[in-house]
Amino acid sequence: MRADVTTADDVRRVGLALPRTYERQVRGRWKLKVRQIVYVAFSRDERAMGFGFPRAERDGLIGSDPETFFLPPTADLRYQWVCAHLSRLDDVEMRELVTDAWRMCTPAMLHDLPDLPDPASRVWHLVEQQEWAEVTPLLHPSLSFADGELRIRGRSQVLTYLRAHPTPRPPRAVEVRDGRLLHWVR
Q1: To the nearest 10°, the Cα dihedral for 164, 109, 111, 124?
Q2: What whole-number distance in Å separates Cα of residue 121 and Cα of residue 113?
Q3: Which residues are registered as beta bridge partners of 51?
Q4: pLDDT band at 5 (very low <50, low <70, confident <90, very high)
Q5: Which of helix, strand or coil describes residue 53?
Q6: Which residues lie closer than 8 Å to 179 by C-beta, 6 or more apart?
Q7: Range(s) of the chain covered by CATH 3.10.450.50
Q8: What is the pTM of this model?
Q9: What residues does CATH 3.90.1150.30 cover in the chain?
């Protein structure tokens, strides 16, 4: 067994950082969900996970590494789903599989968020949830916000705008300084 074994907690860390994700226990098994759609489910012992994966590509993935990947139970074969032994995944591959499964059940406008530098994805999620106290420390005091023709400068002004308007579309590009968003471009 490798020293850098991926665990269910590693998967949770990645999944729960993705916008709109929450965790629920269903019939004794923990699942990561977006709205009512499950995109990752753990075995009861948390040594394996099932995850969303295109059905048309499933056999190719399993054939590429049958020691790691396997088919779900017969009743679940109709779903876009495949399973993996966590101990056989490294963190990079696990992150890619979990993020791609999440992308299968979220609107396309969110798909680039995990690829943006931290804390862009978290900021957008908190703005969507209107968690203003948690958003504020993640925004640089000199924040510039650009969405089409709209241009706003300054953290206070941007927060005032965001509180009064519907959640903006996620940024296409951001710049981070000192761990806080300095530029948000849509």
Answers
A1: 0
A2: 5
A3: 40, 82
A4: confident
A5: coil
A6: 118, 119, 138
A7: 113-185
A8: 0.86
A9: 8-106
